[in-house]
Every structure is written in C-alpha cells, then in structure tokens.
Amino acid sequence: MSEPEAVVGILGAGRAGTAFARALLRAGIAVDIASTRPPRALQHHLKIYAPGADPVLGADIAVRARTSSGLVILAVPQEELDEVDPDWVTGTVLIDATNTWQDELLPGWLQAAVDEQLPTSMALAGRFGAARVVKALNHIAHTEFDDAAQPGAELTQRRALAVAGDDDARGLVMGLLVRMGFDPVSVGGLAAGRIMEPDGPLFNRPLRREDILRFAR
C-alpha cells in the first residue's frame, strides 16, 4: 500500500499564508488552508493566490495533516490569535510563522509575554499546549518567498532559514523546509526563536547557513 499524500495545513490565507501554500504546492505537497472566511468564500481568493490549495474550515485544518505530515503552519496576525481554537491543532506540530508588530492590539495572554520580554513562541506553546510548537518561516518577507524557494538548487546554494524547537518536531519542520527549497538551520530550543523576531539579527535578511550558525545555541 502506498503512503498517503503529504498534506500540510495553513491557518491564514493572507499574503504570507498563500506564499507558503504556493511553495508547498510546487514541492508536491497538498495544502489545506483556512481563514476567517468560509471555504466557499475563500475559493476565488485561492484560485488567484494559491491555485491548488483546498479551502477548509478552521476546525478541519488538521484533519488530513494529522494522518500525513502532522504539520500545520500558523500564519494569522497575532492580533487575531484568539480566533484560533487550540483544539483545531491538537496532536500536530504547529509551525509558528507569526510576528509581533508594534501597532497590533495583542490578546492579553500574548501581551503579558511581550511585557515580560519572553519570546512570543513560548506564549504560543502555552496557548496551544496540545500541539508541539516550532518557530520557523517568520523571518523571511512574503514578497521574497516565491523567488527564495529553490527546491532544484543544491542545499548549500539555497537561502537558509532558522528553526527553533524543543524536541524532534524541530527535525520534522526542517525536513519540510528542505522540500520547499530552503536550507534549514537549527538555532536551538524554542526560546532561541527570539533571534528570529522583528528586532532580532536574523529578521528579513538574506542568509546563508554560516550567518545563522553564528547565533545558534
């Protein structure tokens, strides 16, 4: 019996979410994507910005992913995180691709972490406790994503992306990034994701492996 097709779920159908979807689809990975709009209303948007992605309800975002890749990408604005039910991603590896922007009105639980100067992924790991959170995909601009993903290039010639996580889930995410066309670099546990945030040294810079390794723990 053949293995089931790899499916990755994406929460968020904005510019970042659809950029991730396009790269995944080019790599031969199926995509389920959910937003605040119902699936029928999302269909036309996806035909333009992520043709081939399947619109689903938020509650169904991990249904297919759990039996294949086990991966869901969180790509919603942090100010809207209270709209994401933690039960939706139970049993998955949740890739935190979100960022904190100064003008956002954050949920109270996340603002408390920011006020304490904690890495935001640590707060998300508490909020989505039934998933394993890994920080990745947040420090590259969505406008650069299509050109930066180069699955046909040698690994050493690809753009490097940092990954932070506390267990073997980090390796699963690194494998996904390889398929998407990047050179993933582990920077340590989830707390190390601080260096990937907007005020960190890795944010929105074209990087090679050696650039990231300077900051790895």
From TrEMBL:
Its BP terms in the Gene Ontology are: copper ion import
The source's superkingdom equals: Bacteria
Give me the Gene Ontology terms describing cellular component: plasma membrane
Q: Report the residue ranges that make up the Pyrroline-5-carboxylate reductase catalytic N-terminal domain in this protein.
A: 8-99
InterPro entries xrefs: NAD(P)-bd_dom_sf, P5C_Rdtase_cat_N, STEAP_metalloreductase
Please indicate if the UniProt record lists Oxidoreductase as a keyword.
yes
Keyword annotations for this protein, in alphabetical order, are: Oxidoreductase
* GO MF annotations, alphabetized: cupric reductase (NADH) activity; ferric-chelate reductase (NADPH) activity
SUPFAM superfamilies (alphabetical): NAD(P)-binding Rossmann-fold domains (SSF51735)
Quote the protein name from its UniProt record.
Pyrroline-5-carboxylate reductase catalytic N-terminal domain-containing protein
